[in-house]
Automatic annotation (TrEMBL):
GO MF, one example: metal ion binding
Official protein name in the record: DNA repair photolyase
Basic and acidic residues bias (residue ranges): 337-346
Ranges where the Radical SAM core domain occurs: 69-310
Region of interest: Disordered: 337-369
Record keyword Mitochondrion present: no
Keywords recorded for this protein, A-Z: Iron, Iron-sulfur, Metal-binding
CDD domains: Radical_SAM
Keyword flag Metal-binding: yes
Low complexity biased stretches: 349-360
Pfam families: Radical_SAM
């Protein structure tokens, strides 16, 4: 298939900002604001109440992952910084401090938009030296957060990668992915395309408080089904698994059953980790919503951003038999990757039956905090 160049952006973005209404009192800020060069203007609109978009012209679209990283990809694209999903546990919150913004409300409400990403990317991947290695989308902030409904950067990004023979992976919580599934299916005819949906919480009340800006779990599962119906082998990221909140047998069984019924091919899971920035914001939420758990979390994450080895081993014994029972075998605790970059092999679990899952007798969970 020959790809025709296309961009969903308003043509004006190559020299000015994308179309939109500048709110009263929001003047075009100086280009050095937040330490970001190429800042065009800041925008507020009624349909995104409380959110300010800072539109910038990026010099590059591709980000190279440091060689020392254990991530199984070399290149990423992040057309947005900050995220209106407002997940209280988001590991990327601290990155807003690089812009002199706070990792709490500013991360949720001050969103940087690289409005010329598709055009810049098209120029980068057209260069003869481009290696055509896999590019990961959704590694820092979500490319299908609500802002994408306004700016439509992803169609141009997908097109640029596919036209230049570059495989891609997409990880998102956003149901706006469904808009681009036909385009991704076309891309899949020429390059490898991996789709992953992040769905961590299968309790509606909890999901609405801890991920207040995200689509519902039901809506995301429906998006998994839509992608599976188009022939994609969808991975669901069941992460973070949160101690005493989403790690009960009932919650895990409900989650895996729903994922299987949605047509996903595999599950990747990982225990909650709390980096600086996210840690303070999560603890503030916990103190308000579940104060009885705060002392335990403070103890568990006192010396590390990661859950203890004991807890992760306990979680592995609990969830792996269920993953096998629902035929969703994927990576084991991918939040703590054990393989080198490019090695997509995964370690399997020994247990493989529902009967074995039912017979597990883990230690009392209180001892793990």
């Amino acid at each position: 298939m020959r790809w025709s160049q296309q961009s969903a952006l308003d043509p004006a973005v190559t020299g000015t900002a994308a179309t939109g209404t500048v709110a009263a009192g929001i003047d075009a800020p100086p280009a050095e604001l937040f330490g970001v060069t190429g800042l065009v203007r800041s925008v507020q609109t009624p349909e995104f109440a409380g959110v300010t978009f800072h539109e910038v012209l990026a010099k590059s679209a591709l980000n190279k992952v440091p060689a020392a990283s254990s991530m199984p990809f070399t290149w990423t694209i992040n057309p947005y910084r900050g995220c209106s999903h407002a997940c209280v546990y988001c590991f990327a919150r601290n990155t807003h401090r690089y812009l002199d913004l706070d990792p709490g409300q500013d991360f949720d409400r001050q969103v940087i938009v690289k409005v010329n990403t598709p055009e810049v990317l098209a120029a980068e991947v057209a260069k003869p030296k481009w290696s055509r290695e896999l590019v990961a989308l959704g590694t820092n902030t979500d490319p299908y957060q609500r802002a994408e409904g306004r700016y439509s950067l992803m169609p141009g990004i997908i097109t640029a990668l596919a036209e230049h023979g570059t495989p891609m992976s997409v990880l998102t919580k956003g149901t706006l992915l469904r808009r681009d599934l036909p385009l991704l299916a076309r891309a899949k005819e020429d390059v490898d395309v991996e789709i992953s949906m992040s769905i961590a919480v299968y309790d509606d009340a909890l999901q609405q408080t801890i991920e207040p800006g995200t689509p519902t779990t039901t809506a995301r599962l429906a998006t998994v089904r839509s992608a599976a119906n188009l022939g994609f082998k969808v991975t669901v990221f069941l992460m973070p698994v949160m101690p005493k909140l989403t790690d009960s047998m009932d919650h895990l069984d409900t989650a895996l059953r729903a994922i299987r019924e949605a047509g996903a091919s595999r599950v990747v899971y990982g225990a909650l980790h709390l980096r600086p920035g996210a840690r303070e914001w999560f603890f503030a939420w916990l103190e308000h919503e579940h104060p009885e758990l705060l002392p335990r979390y403070r103890r568990m994450y006192a010396k590390s951003s990661y859950a203890s080895k004991e807890y992760r081993a306990w979680l592995s014994r609990r969830i792996n038999p269920l993953i096998d029972a629902y035929d969703l075998r994927g990576a084991t605790d991918d939040d703590y990757p054990m393989t080198k970059r490019g090695d997509r092999t995964r370690l399997g679990a020994a247990s493989s039956t529902a009967a074995q899952a039912a017979s597990l007798t883990p230690p009392p969970q209180e001892a793990l905090f």
